[in-house]
C-alpha cells in the first residue's frame, strides 16, 4: 500500500476513554428567591371597591343552603362557590320576630364582610333591598315589581339608573319545581345572564367582563329572589295545611 504521507502513531495514551468514568451533565443549581403570593383578601385592584376583587375572574356562581345542628331557628346560611366548586363566600340571613326584615351578611374565606344586603326600610311591605360593599360603599338596589303573572326585578345603580332586568315565571306558577329567570338588558332585548334554581341550590351566570359592582348586585338579587321563593313556598304550605 502506498504511503499517504500521514502517519498515525497510536500510543497507550490514545485509547478511547471509558464512558463509565464520565459523570453525567447536570445543570447548575440556581435557587430562585421565593416570592410570597398575597391572598386575594390583601389585594386591592385599581378601580375595584374593596372586597369585590373576588368577582373579577368569575362568570358563574353557585349557591347552596347549609344546615347545622347549631343553626339559629330563624336564620338561613349559604355557601357560595365558583364554577369549579371552590368556596368563595359564606352568607348568613337573619330573621326578626317583629317583622321579616331582610338582612344578609356575605363574608369571604378570610371572614371579611364583603357585602351586606338589607331592606331599604324596616317595613314588612318593602320590596327593595340595598347592596353595600366593604367600607359602606353603596353599590345599588334590587327592586321587586309586583306582578301576578311574572316575576320582575330591576337592578338599579346608585344613580337610580336601571342596569339590568330579571324576568321569570310568577310565584303562583313555578314555586316548588326548578325555575329559571333571565337577566336582560334594560330594554329587555338581550339576555345577558340567568338565575336558575335547581335542587335547593341556585346558579347565577353573567358575562365575564361585566363590572364587578354589577356582578355583586346580581348575587344580591339572586339571593333576594331565593328568599322570595322560599317565602312563597312557606305560605303555600301553611295554606295547604289549613285546608
Description:
The protein is mainly β. The chain has one domain (49-242): LURP1-related (Porin). The chain is built from 1 helix and 12 strands; from the N terminus they run ββββββββββββα. The protein has one helix at 212-242; strands spanning 60-66, 75-81, 87-94, 103-108, 113-119, 128-133, 137-145, 150-156, 162-169, 179-184, 191-198, 201-205. A 12-stranded antiparallel β-barrel has the order 1-2-3-4-5-6-7-8-9-10-11-12. The chain is globular and about 60 Å long. Belongs to the phospholipid scramblase family. It holds the Pfam family Scramblase. One of its GO terms (cellular component) is plasma membrane. May mediate accelerated ATP-independent bidirectional transbilayer migration of phospholipids upon binding calcium ions that results in a loss of phospholipid asymmetry in the plasma membrane.
Question: What distinguishing features does this structure have?
Answer:
single chain; 243 residues; mainly beta; Porin; twelve-stranded antiparallel beta barrel; 1 helix; 13% helix; globular; lipoprotein; transmembrane; phospholipid scramblase activity; membrane; Scramblase
Offer a quick outline of the entry.
The chain is built from 1 helix and 12 strands. It has 243 residues and is mainly β. Residues 1-32 are annotated as: Disordered.
Domains (count)? 1
CATH superfamily: LURP1-related
Mean pLDDT: 79
How much of the sequence lies in strands comes to 25-35%
Q: What is the level 1 CATH name?
A: Mainly Beta
- Estimate percent helicity: 10-25%
Order of helices and strands: EEEEEEEEEEEEH
Overall, the morphology is: globular
Task: Provide the CATH topology.
Answer: Porin
Q: Which segments are poorly predicted (pLDDT under 50) over 5 or more consecutive residues?
A: 3-8, 16-43
Specify the CATH architecture: Beta Barrel
> What about the largest sheet?
12 strands, antiparallel, barrel
Whole-angstrom Rg: 31 Å
Provide a count of the helices. 1
State the secondary-structure class.
Answer: mainly beta
Tell me the total number of β-strands: 12
User: Order of strands across the widest beta sheet?
Assistant: 1-2-3-4-5-6-7-8-9-10-11-12
Q: What is the CA–CA distance across the termini?
A: 122 Å
Amino acid at each position: 500500500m502506498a504511503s499517504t504521507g500521514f502517519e498515525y502513531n497510536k500510543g497507550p495514551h490514545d485509547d478511547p476513554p471509558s464512558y463509565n468514568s464520565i459523570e453525567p451533565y447536570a445543570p447548575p443549581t440556581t435557587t430562585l428567591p421565593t416570592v410570597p403570593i398575597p391572598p386575594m383578601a390583601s389585594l386591592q385592584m385599581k378601580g375595584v371597591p374593596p372586597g369585590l376583587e373576588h368577582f373579577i375572574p368569575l362568570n358563574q356562581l353557585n349557591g347552596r343552603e347549609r344546615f347545622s345542628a347549631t343553626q339559629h331557628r330563624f336564620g338561613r346560611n349559604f355557601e357560595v362557590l365558583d364554577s369549579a366548586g371552590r368556596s368563595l363566600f359564606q352568607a348568613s340571613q337573619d330573621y326578626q320576630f317583629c317583622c321579616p326584615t331582610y338582612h344578609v351578611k356575605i363574608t369571604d374565606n378570610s371572614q371579611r364582610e364583603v357585602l351586606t344586603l338589607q331592606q331599604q326600610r324596616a317595613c314588612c311591605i318593602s320590596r327593595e333591598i340595598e347592596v353595600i360593599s366593604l367600607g359602606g360603599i353603596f353599590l345599588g338596589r334590587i327592586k321587586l315589581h309586583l306582578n301576578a303573572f311574572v316575576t320582575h326585578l330591576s337592578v338599579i345603580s346608585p344613580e337610580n339608573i336601571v342596569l339590568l332586568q330579571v324576568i321569570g315565571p310568577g310565584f303562583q306558577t313555578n314555586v316548588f319545581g326548578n325555575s329559571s329567570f333571565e337577566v336582560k338588558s334594560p330594554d329587555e332585548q338581550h339576555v345577558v345572564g340567568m338565575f336558575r334554581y335547581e335542587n335547593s341550590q341556585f346558579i347565577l351566570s353573567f358575562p365575564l367582563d361585566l363590572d364587578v359592582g354589577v356582578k355583586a348586585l346580581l348575587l344580591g338579587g339572586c339571593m333576594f329572589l331565593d328568599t322570595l321563593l322560599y317565602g312563597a313556598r312557606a305560605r303555600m304550605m301553611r295554606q295547604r295545611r289549613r285546608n
